[in-house]
């Protein structure tokens, strides 16, 4: 309301001063007055300007007189701004402190909640403890009652013990008498038992000795019978050898075959039967039966249990080499031939091109020394091949052969060499247990291959 009154007063005052200035200007103009030696028109203008300045000065003076805010705005603006900045800084500081206080309050609130939860748990635990205490007090009361009852029973038992003590003293006297009698009888029984144990031990030793003697007698009888049979067989073989009638020699190969892996039991049996049939045919050919004297029954002695034993050795699903060998020397036209089955795991022993053995040679060797050195190389090859699992010929003991023509060519070639050289024996193909060891002889000089013979 004061603002409206102030504005109204300014308007009225401005109007009055303007009217007064206009009249003064008009009178100055009519009177053609001059101020400061100015022309009348300029004097009127100066009076008008002065009148406007008075209006503005009076307006500003009234405003400054009546409005403290305007006075502060005109004369204290910078200090007000400074105070405002300080107030804003204090406000931000207070807000920061307020936020910190709120954070601390939240933490205190969380801590209070945790304390409340702990307090609830403590109260719950106190309740449980009180319940447990009441239960213990009840049990204690029951135990006290039972203790009083036990005390009464103890008193009764004490009286009973007293009476039993008297009876025990009486029985003790009788027990002492009986113990003396028992010791006397025990001494007699001990003496009798000792004699009985001694006799029993002697009887057991005699029986054990008789059993050992009987076993030795049976063993010796078996050995004597076996030796007698072997002696007779040896005599027959010697006689046959003298007469030249031996058809099949001991360990002579009758048939050989490779069993493929993962065969069914029926397939294993069929393969074994085929090998036995081949061995039967080979044996008949070697025994040289006359056309009208060939036996109708098989000449090979083999039982079903032997066949089952052979199948059990083959049932693990791997590949094996089976050789059917003669178990002894047999004459021509014999009708019962004992055999043995040799089973060897069929695996690759040497890869193609594998080195088996090697020897160093000097160029000045005479022919006999060179042949002996070559023979030594072949012996090394045979030894290593047999050690690794290559099956040798049962009769010759060899694991393979080398062509004589190639060996002759090798002798001719090395005779032309004038410096030391090395001969290596390598395989021409992959070698398995039943394979015949096929070799190549490679001649190297100064680490370089110069010839190959096979």
Structural write-up:
The chain is of the alpha+beta class. It has eight helices and ten strands. The protein has helices spanning 2-31, 40-66, 68-75, 77-243, 265-287, 304-314, 367-388, 404-414, and strands spanning 246-248, 253-259, 300-301, 320-326, 330-331, 337-345, 355-361, 421-427, 439-445, 448-453. A four-stranded mixed beta sheet has the order 2-4-6-3. It is flat.
Entry summary:
This protein has helices spanning 2-31, 40-66, 68-75, 77-243, 265-287, 304-314, 367-388, 404-414; strands at residues 246-248, 253-259, 300-301, 320-326, 330-331, 337-345, 355-361, 421-427, 439-445, 448-453. The protein has 454 residues and is an alpha+beta fold. Helix 1 runs antiparallel to helix 2 and helix 5 (265-287) packs across helix 6 (304-314).
Low-pLDDT stretches: none
Instruction: State the major sheet.
Output: 4 strands, mixed
Report the portion of residues in β strands.
5-15%
The average pLDDT value, as a whole number, equals 77
Termini Cα gap: 137 Å
**Total number of helical segments?**
8
The helix fraction, in percent, is 55-70%
Rg, Cα atoms, Å: 68 Å
- Let me know the number of strands: 10
Tell me the structural class: alpha+beta
Strand/helix succession: HHHHEEHEHEEEEHHEEE
Outline: flat
What spatial order of strands do you see in the largest sheet? Answer: 2-4-6-3
């Amino acid at each position: 309301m004061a603002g409206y009154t102030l504005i109204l007063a300014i308007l009225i005052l401005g109007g009055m001063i303007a009217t007064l200035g206009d009249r003064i200007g008009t009178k100055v103009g009519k009177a053609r007055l001059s101020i400061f030696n100015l022309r009348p028109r300029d004097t009127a203008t100066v009076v008008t300007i002065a009148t406007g300045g008075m209006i503005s000065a009076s307006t500003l003076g009234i405003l400054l007189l009546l409005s403290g805010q305007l006075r502060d705005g005109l004369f204290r603006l910078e200090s007000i701004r400074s105070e405002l900045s300080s107030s804003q800084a204090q406000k931000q500081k207070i807000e920061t402190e307020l936020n910190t206080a709120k954070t601390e309050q939240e933490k205190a609130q969380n801590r209070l909640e945790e304390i409340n939860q702990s307090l609830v748990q403590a109260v719950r635990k106190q309740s449980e403890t009180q319940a447990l205490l009441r239960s213990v007090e009840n049990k204690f009361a029951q135990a006290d009652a039972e203790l009083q009852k036990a005390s009464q029973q103890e008193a009764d038992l004490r009286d009973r013990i007293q009476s039993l003590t008297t009876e025990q003293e009486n029985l003790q006297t009788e027990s002492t008498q009986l113990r003396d009698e028992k010791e006397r009888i025990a001494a007699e029984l001990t003496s009798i038992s000792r004699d009985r144990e001694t006799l029993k031990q002697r009887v057991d030793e005699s029986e054990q000795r008789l059993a050992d003697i009987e076993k030795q007698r049976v063993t010796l009888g078996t050995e004597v019978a076996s030796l007698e049979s072997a002696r007779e067989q040896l005599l027959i073989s010697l006689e046959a050898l003298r007469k030249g009638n031996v058809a099949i020699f001991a360990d002579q190969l009758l048939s050989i075959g490779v069993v493929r892996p993962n065969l069914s039991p029926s397939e294993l049996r069929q393969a074994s039967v085929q090998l036995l049939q081949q061995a039967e045919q080979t044996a008949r050919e070697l025994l040289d039966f006359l056309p009208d004297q060939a036996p109708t029954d098989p000449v090979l002695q083999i039982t079903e249990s032997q066949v089952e034993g052979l199948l059990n050795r083959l049932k693990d699903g791997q590949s094996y080499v089976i050789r059917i060998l003669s178990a002894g020397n047999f004459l021509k036209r014999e009708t019962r031939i004992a055999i043995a089955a040799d089973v060897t795991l069929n695996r690759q022993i040497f890869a193609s091109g594998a080195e088996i053995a090697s020897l160093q040679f000097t160029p000045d060797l005479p022919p006999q020394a060179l042949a002996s050195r070559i023979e030594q190389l072949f012996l090394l090859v045979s030894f290593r091949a047999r050690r690794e699992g290559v099956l040798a010929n049962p009769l010759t003991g060899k694991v393979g052969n080398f062509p004589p023509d190639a060996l002759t060519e090798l002798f001719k070639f090395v005779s032309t060499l004038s410096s030391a050289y090395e001969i290596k024996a390598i395989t021409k193909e992959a070698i398995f247990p039943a394979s015949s060891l096929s070799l190549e002889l490679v001649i190297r000089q100064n680490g370089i291959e110069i010839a190959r013979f096979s």
